[in-house]
Amino acid sequence: MKQIIFALILISAVVFNFVSCKKKDGNVSTYNATNWGFKIPANFPLPNYTFENNAQTIDRFGLGRLLFYDNILSLNNKISCSSCHAPDHAFSDHNVALSAGIGGVLGTRNAPSLSNLAWYPAFMWDGGVNHIEVQPMVPLTSPTEMNETMANILAKLNANTNYKNLFKKAYDVDVITDQVLLQALAQFTSMLISADSKYDQYIAGTASFTDAEKTGLDIFRNKCAGCHTEPLFTNFSYENIGLDMVSVDLGRQLITQNPLDRGKFRVPSLRNVAKTYPYMHDGRFFTLSQVLDHHINGALNNGITDSTLLQLTPLTSAEKLDIIQFLNTLTDIQFMVDPSLADPTH
Amino acid sequence: MKKNQITFVLFLGLMVSQLTSCKKKTPTPAVVETGTVTINLNHKWGTANGSDFKLDTTLVQPDTGDSLNFTTLEYYVSNFKLKKSDGTWWVHPDSYFLVDLSNPGSLSLNLTNVPLGTYTDVNFTMGVDSLHNVSGAQGGALSTTNLMFWSWNSGYIMLKVEGISNNSQTGSFAFHLGGFSGADNIVTDKQISFSGSSLSVSSNHTSKVFLQVNPDWLWHSAPSVSVLNSIHVPGSDAKTMALGFFANNSITFDHIVE
């Protein structure tokens, strides 16, 4: 109930923005202003990102969307955010374990699917980034990703008449700064909301599950939901699930400096998981069946491994199939083909 | 429940702010008379009234005996307040400054719109308060283009000191100090009294406070660069070194020019 009230307030605030600023902004692009805007799905909690100091407008969103798909943000002008976060893969990479940055240099971690980021308390597999607006600093400047400097990106954008005009319109600035660039990107990434899967429809009572899907959900709630908690399918904790006796990637330890955090990674959301293979922080498993064999039935006890995981009774092959049937219901096709989230230049 | 209320207030705020931002600019009310105060930082080295601190000059650290040739010294100071003679504080809004020894202009911090009156103390934060480390993209002195922001482990590098030294095994040293939460917090409040003098701020006039800053305090508790020559993460090493400078008597009142 409270959430519905909140959603109403939010929607009215956004609508109000349009009405009150319409004159100043001129055209309202191609969207239907009454339908467009950040909405909290019925079964979701309150978001973490509230557009504080970066009030949502359609011009800002449109600008963020253009930037997300634009190669101008990389050193050689050849890759964009979407190179590694493609809409048809639920904004993950094109089924590769490790992503290639500029010049084909490989990183060390699997590019996660991007959805429901406004609910995330922290970003990256190790949770090192604390805010959706500063997250792009990592890919923009990392040598294995876009390898740019902020100064050079701003020089390129400020030399581009189209971007100068768009930033002027969206943020009323004469010079494009890192602050408005990062805010514009957050206007887009916070709108990547996936909440219309068969699972969501089942919860809303508008779709029904097969027997296998129902059984899968029961087993899931029993064995997995402690970490992969509904409705976001992560509780945002950091866990070592015993993939290795000694983890090469220090994971959470890189951030906390605590040796007991070695090999701990943020519990990933499982939304659209059928489409985001390969799996795990380093993309080591290609199929969900492999994930279940190693993650649940084959977890190694390395001294840091989560103990509840080690105590789980192994899954039978029938249970595995049911879980996979259930995981398939988390696929949200609407999200992947949503025209308002697609490359605006295509 | 609490979160709901907070968010509610937030969105109410959003609506109100939209209202104000979109309405036609109304003429501003009568101007309140104010003055300007500059806080001028003179960097010294060694004992009180020691020699000037200069980049690209070899200086000997009195505690460790290291010979240090600095190429970079940059640090944040923020949240300036001035204490009035009646004991109340005037808070300068949004005051974030990056002091950069290679940029002489950055050594004089401009506090504008200071209400007229007499002041006895200045209070400020060494570093960047925790709120501004967790609130997303920032502008001004806090822009990421100053290269004082860690992207992979979000947070400001609050003090950066780099240079060359024969005492270091690699021939150089680089300390990037930050950390704003829990045990790693280095953000420190500093209050400096004008030692019985008072600062009077008058209309359309700039009054100047001169402070002495002694970066040799960085090695007050930190070991010689032969033992430790680089820090790039928050943690106990960063804290020891930063607090040596942030928390001790490293910044002292010198004089006032009205």
Description:
The complex is a heterodimer of chains A (346) and B (258). The two termini of chain A are 41 Å apart. Chain A has helices spanning 2-25, 58-68, 81-84, 137-141, 150-158, 161-171, 178-189, 198-204, 211-223, 253-256, 288-295, 307-311, 317-328, 333-337, and strands at residues 238-239, 265-266. Chain A folds into two domains: 48-193, Cytochrome c-like domain (Cytochrome Bc1 Complex, Chain D, domain 2); 198-330, Cytochrome Bc1 Complex, Chain D, domain 2. Chain A is globular, with a radius of gyration of 21 Å. Mean pLDDT of chain A is 91; it is low at 4-30. In chain A, strands 1-2 form a two-stranded antiparallel ribbon. Helix content of chain A is 38%, strand content 1%. Chain A is mainly α. Chain A is built from 14 helices and two strands, in the order αααααααααβαβαααα. Chain B has one domain (34-257). The longest helix of chain B is centred in the N-terminal third of the chain and has 21 residues, at 2-22. In chain B, strands 3, 4, 5, 6, 8, 9, 10, 11, 12, 13 and 15 form an eleven-stranded mixed β-sheet that branches. In chain B, strands 1, 2, 7, 14 and 16 form a five-stranded mixed β-sheet that branches. Chain B is mainly beta. Chains A and B meet through helix 1, helix 4, helix 5 and helix 7 of A and helix 1 of B.
